[in-house]
Amino acid sequence: MQAAQNTYEVAMRRAVVLAAQGAGRTGSNPVVGAVILDSNGSIVAEGFHAGGDHAEVVAIKAAKEIPAHATIVVTLEPCNHTGKTGPCTEAIIDAGIKRVVYAVTDPNPIAAGGRARLEAAGIAVIHGVLENEARWVNRAWLHVQAKRRPLYIWKVAATLDGKTAAADGTSKWITGEESRAYVTRLRRESDAILVGTGTVIADDPELVPHDGDSFKNPLRVVVGKRDLPAGAKVLDSQAETFHHQSNDFNQLNEALLSKGIKQVLVEAGSELGTAMFRANSIDEIVLIQAPTLLGSGRSFIGDLGIKTLADRQDVELISHSVLGKDLVTHMKVGK
To answer: DSSP string covering 206-273, please?
Structure first.
C-alpha cells in the first residue's frame, strides 16, 4: 500500500508541474494536470488543460491505448457536467480506466459530483494526494470560487530600502535582466496586468510579455478616471486593453470576473498599489529588490494609516530566492 502511495505522489508531482503549464491559458477555468499510469506505475500518457480539452481528456487522447487496470492521477476532481466539453467522468469511464487519484475536491457546485459518479461506475477513487501542492498551483481559480473576485498579485521592483524611483523620477532599470525575465514569466502566467492611469501617463508601458510566445497576451487593465493619452502603447494591437474609469474596486472585481479573469498581476505604482492594499484587494506581493540604496525617492508603498507598531500589517512569507544579484520575496497578505 505504501509503495502505491509513493507511486501516486510521484505521479501527482508530475501532474502539478503539468498543470502549471496551463497558467494564463485557461480563461475562467482551473489549471489541471493529469497522468495515466499502467498497472506497474509507469507513465502511459499525460496532459494539461490549456483552454481546449480538459486535462483528463488530453491525457486519454495522448495514450495509444489504455492498458488494463490503468490509473489516472489528476490535480482536481474530474468534472461531472457538460460545459464547452463533456464530463471528464464519462471520458474516464468510457476509456476503461479502473482507478482515479485526485488531489483537490472540486468546490464548484456546477461541476461537482465527479467522485460519486466514478464510484457508481465501479471505479476506485482516492483523493487528497498532495492536496496542498495542487491547491497552490490552482490557487487563483480556487480563490475565485471562494471569494468571488480575482487573485491580485502586486509585483514591486525596488531597492533594498524600498524605493521604486529616485528623487528625480528615474527608475529604469533598478533590477537586473534575470529579474525582468522572471517578471515576463509572471505576466505570461496571469490573465491580466493592471496599472493606474498615472503609470500609463508617466511611463507609457506596453504591459505585454516579451517572450516570443504566440499565445494571446494577457488583458491590459488601466484603473483611474483620467483619460488615456492618444497613442499610448497600451492602446496598441498587442493585447486587449480595459480602462476601468472608476476607483471602486468592487466594480473592478465584477468587471474582471465577467471577462473570465482569475489572476491579476498588479504593476501599479505606490498610489494605486497602496489604495488596493488598504482596501484588502492585494492577496500576494512579489518584492524584487536590487542590492542598492537610494535613501530618498519614491517608496513602493504609501501611508497605511498605521500609527503604532502594534498595528503593523504582517505578511506571510511564501518563498525567498535570489535571481542574479536581486532578492525575490514572495509574500501572502492576510488570511
So the answer is: --S--S---SPPPEEEEESSSPPPTT-GGGSTTS-EEEE----HHHHHHHHHHTT--EEEE---HHHH
